[in-house]
From TrEMBL:
The keyword Lipid metabolism applies. This is Diphosphomevalonate decarboxylase. One of its GO terms (biological process) is sterol biosynthetic process. It comes from the Eukaryota. Residues 13-186 form the Diphosphomevalonate decarboxylase-like N-terminal domain. Pathway: Isoprenoid biosynthesis; isopentenyl diphosphate biosynthesis via mevalonate pathway; isopentenyl diphosphate from (R)-mevalonate: step 3/3. One of its GO terms (molecular function) is diphosphomevalonate decarboxylase activity. Its EC number is 4.1.1.33. InterPro entries: GHMP_kinase_C_sf, Mev_decarb, Mev_diP_decarb, MVD-like_N, Mvd1_C, Ribosomal_Su5_D2-typ_SF, Ribsml_uS5_D2-typ_fold_subgr. One of its GO terms (cellular component) is cytosol. It comes from Canariomyces notabilis. Gene3D superfamilies: 3.30.230.10, GHMP kinase, C-terminal domain. Keywords: ATP-binding, Lipid biosynthesis, Lipid metabolism, Lyase, Nucleotide-binding, Steroid biosynthesis, Steroid metabolism, Sterol biosynthesis, Sterol metabolism.
Length: 357
């Protein structure tokens, strides 16, 4: 028997770190958010997912679709991964129906091999880079003529934050209104080169897997926090408007204030969840105090902290203040925190290296 051809495509996708956070689902099945959110896509030269998708008629149907994540078999039977596969296969099947000369890739088992070069499930947006890469790798394998917006719509169903990693620069995820989620996807607010001196410092406080996943944490918050209602009704809509204006005007002071206030607001709703959820730890709080020390010493706002669902800090600052920010972080935290010297500290440039549509 002739060896069956193996079709293959590889892609990388970057992490994005929200400055106005997504936290809450209004529809868990379609993965629709309770609020819009806004993030900065970081450079792929530091934190990225690399995913290879392949399919072949020689892959045993009995083994089904599979994912090897960081060298370990990972479950793909979850509804959200299945939704991504289903959406992508349906688009490939439509191409095959229109052109019978195309190989029937949509009927073949899929094998995915993925690697994150940064901690997985530790609050550094691995699900964002991970699902963005998964969706793009399969779309490339299937040679789909899909725009970043369309891929964003599919990636959202894998992990909400993933819809923003299909774009570079400054990216908004509009919550949308449609019951079927057809208008809930990301768009680019500004290219990275609009504000090219923006930098992000990643402080890896802990690479351990978080105790409460984002998916489960936000569902507990929606169900039990009163403060959360105030956040989605008032705080986030105001922060979204202020943040878009700050980015358009390259107003770092405003960008920083909204970033820090929104991170504080999000973690306050976690503390208001019953039972409470704590993602930040003592080192995270020391990083917040360090930012305040840096800003006070400078007599202006030169640094802004934000924390996702984990203890790791992301500090945004402008290139000209590198010395003040990076230098002070080493000085302030280096001596004071046990084990700090083993932590990773990285300066990242946001990038537009992914397709921008
Ligand atoms: P994080 O803060 O890292 O985004 P989450 O709790 O949101 O943490 O999501 C972590 C989960 O995302 C992992 O347990 C895994 O299921 C999924 N994930 C992470 N990386 C990848 C990847 N490269 N490919 C596919 N899925 C991934
Ligand atoms: C705190 O996108 O990981 O990082 O949609 O359930 O996969 P799921 O959640 P996920 O949540 C991210 C939460 C956040 C804020 C943000 O990235 O906007
Ligand atoms: Co995540």
């Amino acid at each position: 028997m002739a060896a069956e051809k193996v079709y293959r495509a590889s892609t990388t996708a970057p992490v994005n770190i929200a400055v106005v956070k997504y936290w809450g689902k209004r529809d868990a099945k379609l993965n629709l958010p309770t609020n819009s959110s806004l993030s900065v896509t970081l450079s792929q030269s530091d934190l990225r997912t690399l995913t290879t998708a392949s399919c072949s008629a020689s892959y045993p149907a009995s083994e089904g679709d599979s994912l090897l994540l960081n060298g370990e078999p990972s479950d793909v039977s979850g509804a959200r991964t299945q939704a991504c596969f289903r959406e992508l296969r349906a688009r490939r099947a439509a191409l095959e129906a229109a052109d019978p000369s195309l190989p029937k890739l949509s009927t073949m088992p899929l094998r995915l091999v993925s690697e994150n070069n940064f901690p997985t499930a530790a609050g550094l947006a691995s699900s964002a880079a991970g699902f963005a890469a998964l969706v793009r790798a399969i779309a490339d394998l299937y040679e789909l003529p899909a725009s970043p917006s369309e891929l964003s719509l599919i990636a959202r169903q894998g992990s909400g934050s993933a819809c923003r990693s299909l774009f570079g620069g400054y990216v908004a995820w509009r919550m949308g209104e449609a019951a079927d989620g057809s208008d809930s996807m990301a768009d680019q607010v500004a290219e990275a080169k609009h504000w090219p001196d923006m930098r992000a410092l990643i402080l890896v406080v802990s690479a351990a897997k978080k105790g409460v996943s984002s998916t489960s944490g936000m569902q507990q918050t929606v169900a039990t926090s009163g403060l959360f209602q105030e956040r989605i009704a008032k705080v986030v809509p105001e922060n979204m408007a202020r943040m878009e204006k700050a980015i358009k005007e390259r107003d770092f002071e405003a960008f920083a204030e909204v970033t820090m206030r929104d991170s504080n607001s999000f973690h306050a709703t976690c503390a208001d969840t019953y039972p409470p959820i704590f993602y930040m730890n003592d080192v995270s709080r020391a990083a917040i105090r360090a930012v305040e020390t840096i800003n006070q010493a400078a007599g202006r706002t030169v640094a802004a902290y934000t924390f996702d669902a984990g203890p790791n800090a992301v500090i945004y600052y402008l290139e000209k203040d590198t010395e003040a920010v990076v230098g002070t972080f080493f000085h302030v935290l280096g001596g004071a925190i046990d084990g700090w010297k083993d932590s990773v500290i990285k300066g990242l440039k946001p990038t537009v290296s992914l397709d921008e549509g």
